[in-house]
Amino acid sequence: MRKFRSTERYVATRELEVAVNAAVALQRPLLVKGEPGTGKTVLAQEIAHSLGLPLIEWHIKSTTKAQQGLYEYDAVSRLRDGQLGDERVRDISNYIVKGKLWEAFESDTPVVLLIDEIDKADIEFPNDLLLELDRMQFHVYETRQTVVAKHRPIVVITSNNEKELPDAFLRRCFFHFIRFPDRETMERILQAHYPDLRAELAREALEVFFRIREVGELKKKPATSELLDWLKLLMIEDMPPEALRSSDLKVALPPLYGALLKNEQDVHLFERLAFLSRARRQ
Amino acid sequence: MFAPFIHELRKAGLPASITEWLALMGAMKAGVAAYDLEDFYYLARTTLVKDERHLDRFDRVFGEVFKGLEQPTTVTGEIIPRALPEEWLRKLAERFFTAEEMAKIEALGGFEALMETLRQRLAEQQRRHQGGSRMIGTNGTSPFGAEGYNPEGVRIGQEGSRHRRAVKVWDRREFRDLDDDAALGARAMKLALRRLRRFARQGEASELDMEGTIGATARNAGTLDLRLRPERRNAVKVLLLLDIGGSMDDHIRASEELFGAARSEFKHLVHLYFHNCPYERFWKSNRRRHEQMISTWEVLRTYGPDWRVVFVGDASMAPYEILEPGGSVEHWNEEAGKLWLRRITAHFRRVAWLNPVPQKHWGYTTSIGLIQDAMEGRMFPLTLEGLDGMAKALR
Predict the structure, then answer these.
(1) What is the pTM of this model?
(2) Which of A68, A74, A73, A64 is nearest to A141 (CA)?
(3) B228 and B247, same structural domain?
(4) What ipTM score was computed for the predicted complex, to two decimals?
């Protein structure tokens, strides 16, 4: 089997490579946590891309039930078809709607299954998936069939820590915490995303970016995805690097700050900081 | 080489079990990591650690184990205390040994002799010891040490019994996780709070009412008549009154976790703050104490008797803060706290007080008894058991 490596568009640290390869080799789900915007969801796409496998995404919402990932029985359509005398009504399997997990299980090639933001669902949700993720099989009561995975899918689960996950669930997973990239890794990430980015602009932008992150009281620290958005804007606007250099954070907000600061309290905080330092200078 | 590692991890409080361990071994065998320490470190971390809170502890343990720092330690890395106080040994013995076990100990010349030998050998021993039949270490047949076999042995620092024969496991606080009084995690709290839920059907009709549909269809002589009804939602309303500041500083973490758990569990949750004892006003926000106040009368008028009231506080203060007008430490209160407590309990009826102070200490503080009287006995410790009791009292 091919091993997961950094690609030209996704920079994975060695620790991430080891974690992914361990999960792939032992066929365990990989639980990924980390600050928002550090590439948790993208990771699944990149694993699929790197290993050359199809990706099935299951995005979890607060109303998602574990059963929906397996299958749903569409009783209402069957009732309606029964009224109309449709022939399909005789076979119950016509009304079993397959879920994402089923899709992944019956695929002829191994697939990568992304269960995105598992912490958004009800607190019992992970418990309801224990057996399915462990054995990679489940039973369909309506048709009395057992669905067994042809190939164990590579399962990637992301969580933002909104809810604590049960121990029994954690025990079945491998865990990786994507730490915030250091400057060097960040430079590589920028390179990977914008190969034609001018080195000077990148340097100045990173300077500003890391200085913003250093401000302790920020409600939402800008992360990799914000930096990438911001740089794209800077490039579209064709901002000269000098514009960033002159924008000492203590004097004014950086240009196009809307891409970096995501709530009004943080913007206020910076305005206040700038005001204070100007007042002190006079 | 790796066996002490997992023991050390467990000692450091990481919930690594045999499952994780086997997974790590499996991954090693599968050749995921190259033969270098850094890869092994990443691999061990991804298999053994399940929560980022534990990463730091993992790193420390890993560093200690694989740097080869030799300290006179037991298998679990605990530095052996050189001089064991006799009082301590005796107390442990009285607590843990049954009469039958005490009889067995006689085989080695009695408990005193056993402890005496242990003390001597602890003094003799300088380095970590493995095997052998005399020194304290691992896998030996000496009465002392871990993972060994000797029915009269004293086990030092080993999680779980291999032969289930050793007389005493020396690990301190080994059963902490099983202790009902132990600090609660957010998840345990949420599950306990679930018992408070009351379901009611309100809002938009979006769910198929199976029975209603069957009934209506039958009345229609078989023509389908779909009936919908609103979804079941948690309709319980909770008013959380939190004591802050002063003596509550010790319990901030527990209170925060409780609050976090309650906020995600109940849709109708209002929280107000007070200091020590509720008087004629509450604060809406902790930070702006003096700007955002709400009078207690207004609270009583705003929230009907169907709200459940949960006080969270240590109830530890001077008795006059409850009993006397003007007793408050922050302002002049015209009427005594006791009176306000009575008004609140009379209006809401379903009231309980959660106290983060361990229940066994309650007897030492007069004010706790006073509050308990005012609550008509509905004071509960902030433990799983206590939350259960609270849920029952609020039914």
Answers:
(1) 0.60
(2) A73
(3) no
(4) 0.73
